[in-house]
Amino acid sequence: MISLARVGKTFKTRRGGHVQALDDVTISIRPGEFVAIVGASGCGKSTLLRMVAGLVLPDIGHLTLDGKLVTGATKGTAMVFQSPTLLPWMNVERNVAFPLSLSGGDGPEARERARVLLHSAGLAGFEHRMPRELSGGMQQRVAICRGLVQQPRILLMDEPFGALDALTREEMSLSLLALWQANPMAVLFVTHSISEAVLLADRVVVMSPRPGRVAEIVEVNLPRPRSFDQEASAEFHRCSKLIRDRIYGGAAHAH
Amino acid sequence: MLTNAADWGRRNLPVIVSTLTFLLGWELLCRGFGIRPFLLPSPSAIWTAVVPVWPNIAMHTVTTLRTVLLGLAASIAISLPLAMLIASSRTMSAAIYPLLVLTQSVPKVALAPILLVALGANEFSRVIITFLVAFFPLVVSSVAGLLAAPPELIELGRSCRATRVQELLRIRLPYALPFVFGGLRVAAALCVVGAVVAEFVGADSGLGYLIQTSMAFFRTPVAFGAVVILAIMGIALFQLVEVIERLLVPWSSNLDSNSNDNN
């Protein structure tokens, strides 16, 4: 569905220098697949995510969606950020429907879709609360609903649980898997946490920094539905070790 | 209602006590040292001087208030679009900001007599002077507000293919409102200053005019009365802006922390 072929991106710094954020990245994401990206800071994870969203365009290589070259923000992608960034002047329901209202689809149908999503995210009864009345985890659930309401074919998540405490994080991981199972879409999930990546993803893309390159792509052969019990399995350990070795092993080789 | 009144009383008790103490000290100072009223009138002397001529003073107050409100309206009407223009692009900002700073480095008090000659001694030129004194902080804080929207939200807008107008009106402008109101409070206070400056230079009514003509005849208590009314006007406008902010921007963190302090 989405494919990046030998993609590269260089940014100009303010002092006139150049920073190579991505170099020779080749990944393809199948419909409905859950892909996690793991890597140290500065390995271009966020750039990669923004590129798939059409917010950043590659300098070299090709980024295609269903065979068509991506040249700008595309319909069919939705973003979820590390902080919930809800609009403080709108209640929860209207926050979820906000992306639809930007394209003029702010009718009762949109409200209904928002309500259904909030219900499935465990936020029934909170539709008319204001964002500041909600806990951090609940706000992030709202932000995920705001992504899902656009019925994306691929949901792009930039360390969405990075600002949450460890317990909320685990709870949110399982909720996300349930939402993903209920909504037919692919997920591209950037994280710093190796165990989070292995628990969630079908494939984990390990990236090495400066310049951002794909160091390894690890297939996770754990059955679904996933649960935390699987963290004790041999496959979980195999994947975690492989990823960890690649991140700390230094030398990156191209695929 | 009763608990509300009691609450209000308890909250404002410190300021009530300090104000009364100040007035009492002032009164005692004047009486104790026998200071002559045309140098420094006591509060009671101001009161007895103002009360007999109150219809006259009310007329001057209305004149000044009109200039202040028109000046404030002009400040809002011009500052907000200007702020949007500045926030819209780096080029616009680079082109407009230096001109704004230039208008601020010119002392408006010095400009007032020149403007009055150029535009005539009428309400229009007084409103222009009021505007010039008051608008700058409103522009600056509005620009800061328009640029304060979280970058993620702007990206969200972009990824939803929002137009630039949508980005400005649906995301940036609501985000800027608490900042706009911050600037508006300062502007409201400055409008009173601006109106009085304009009336000093060229007017045939208004509290600024009243102060000047009173002092020409050493009627100091009346002039002091006008000053007190100007102070009350400034406080009332400040409060009015705050009330409107509470109604329009209930999510403002600024107001939030205030209400927490009160609890």
Describe this structure in words.
The complex is a heterodimer of chains A (255) and B (263). Chain A has 255 residues and is α/β, with parallel strands linked by helices. Chain A folds into 2 domains: 2-76 and 152-248, P-loop containing nucleotide triphosphate hydrolases (Rossmann fold), CATH 3.40.50.300; 87-151. Chain A has helices spanning 45-52, 92-102, 108-120, 136-148, 166-182, 194-200, 234-248; strands at 2-12, 18-29, 34-39, 60-65, 68-69, 77-80, 154-158, 186-191, 203-208, 213-219. In chain A, the strands form 2 sheets. Chain A has a 6-stranded mixed sheet, with helices on both faces. Chain A has a 4-stranded antiparallel sheet with strand order 2-1-4-5, covered by helices on one side. The radius of gyration of chain A is 18 Å and the shape is globular. Chain B has 263 residues and is mostly helical. Chain B is globular and about 75 Å long. Chain A binds chain B through residues 50, 53-55, 72-73, 75, 77-79, 81-83, 85, 87-89, 99, 101-103, 130, 132, 146, 150, and chain B through 150, 152-153, 155-162, 166, 170-171, 174, 249, 251, 256.
